[in-house]
Amino acid sequence: MSQDIFVVAEHLKGKLADVTFEMLGKGRELADARGGNLVAVLLGNGVKNLVTEMGIANRVISVEHASLENFNPETYSTALAEVIRAKSPAATLVANSSMGMDLAAALSIRAGLPLVAYAIDVKVEDGALVATSQLYGGKLNVESQFSAEGAVVSMLAGASSADKGRATGSPAVEDFAPPLSLASPKVRFKKMIEPEGGDVDITTKEVLVSVGRGIQSVDNIPQMQELADALGGALSCSRPIVDSKWLPKTRQVGKSGVKVKPKFYLALGISGAPEHIEGMKDAELIVAINSDPNAPIFDYAHYGIVGDLFDIVPLLTEKAKA
């Protein structure tokens, strides 16, 4: 096993994802601590122009093939496993994104390496790599020490600073021959379906009233909307609300929704799962109302109220209208 740290570059529509830079920054730190190289692995077809954005890496391994043009967990994991078997890195960092979650587990199996999922940090302790992962919606952290053979680590977005990984430059590029099996994959990409537009763009709003499972019923949406209107803001939500079809996908804040940075973010009945926190933690002022005093959202809120939101929201609405 080498001392190198590999980062799988996630990209979509010709643009590197922010989480790629977060992992590159963390990877640089780990590679320096172990005396190894930081290596970005770039899969795709005609995407070498992205190499210059990853100047923080010592080297970029490029695998290009028509079957890698669009994300496909089968072709991506097959190609990555070949790279890992050939190079034996100390760790391979993969984003814990919608694409990365499909990729990391398959890669772990194909490469014969353990997977550490939902990681919020990786560090070197007494020469060994140790990852900290979140469990139970962020209520419990667990540390895992890597095996001597290395490991695949899926990193939660927002766990590290993206700015630390942003650097333009000209890292060395190594072309890696794609596996022959990519010519006839069993899984084929058909088309990408993007969310419909036309609804409120919550990324442009200075005030967001965001609702979670704690509002209990779709019948309570108008009451929350009334508060949002009184505050001059918009209504947003966490994923369970969209999954229940109480609000459209365009209102979803979080990893599988959108990232927002309003001046004021009011979280109503939102527990604070890492996927949601990722999308709103940069708000200037966060206030949370939740009946559970141990809800993780309180770890990120500037102010918190432990109580029944159905007692508090009418009072806030009345005050806002006054």
List the helices and strands and how they pair.
Blueprint lengths: L4 E4 L2 E2 L2 E2 L1 H17 L3 E7 L14 E6 L8 H15 L3 E5 L2 H14 L3 E11 L2 E8 L4 E6 L5 E5 L16 E4 L31 E5 L9 H10 L3 E4 L1 H5 L20 E5 L5 H7 L4 E6 L12 E4 L2 H13 L1
Parallel strand pairs: 1-4, 1-6, 4-5, 5-11, 6-10, 7-10, 12-13, 12-14, 14-15, 15-16
Antiparallel strand pairs: 2-3, 7-8, 8-9
Helix pairs in contact: 2-3, 4-7
Give the quaternary arrangement of the chains. single chain
The total of beta strands comes to 16
Roughly how many Å is the radius of gyration?
A: 21 Å
Rounded mean pLDDT is 92
- Structural class comes to alpha/beta
Helix content: 25-40%
For the sheet with most strands, the description reads: 9 strands, mixed
Instruction: Estimate the strand proportion.
Output: 25-35%
Order of helices and strands: EEEHEEHEHEEEEEEHEHEHEEH
Instruction: Determine the number of helices (DSSP H or I, runs of at least 4 residues).
Output: 7
What is the terminal separation in angstroms? 67 Å
Low-pLDDT ranges: none
* Largest beta sheet: strand ordering: 9-8-7-10-6-1-4-5-11
Shape: elongated
Structure report:
- The chain has 322 residues and is α/β, with parallel strands linked by helices.
- 25% of the residues lie in helices and 26% in strands.
- The chain is built from seven helices and 16 strands.
- It has helices spanning 18-34, 73-87, 98-111, 221-230, 239-243, 274-280, 309-321; strands at 5-8, 11-12, 15-16, 38-44, 59-64, 91-95, 115-125, 128-135, 140-145, 151-155, 172-175, 207-211, 234-237, 264-268, 285-290, 303-306.
- Strands 9-8-7-10-6-1-4-5-11 form a nine-stranded mixed β-sheet.
- α4 (221-230) runs parallel beside α7 (309-321).
- The protein is elongated.
- The protein starts with a strand and ends with a helix.
- The model has no long low-confidence stretch (mean pLDDT 92).
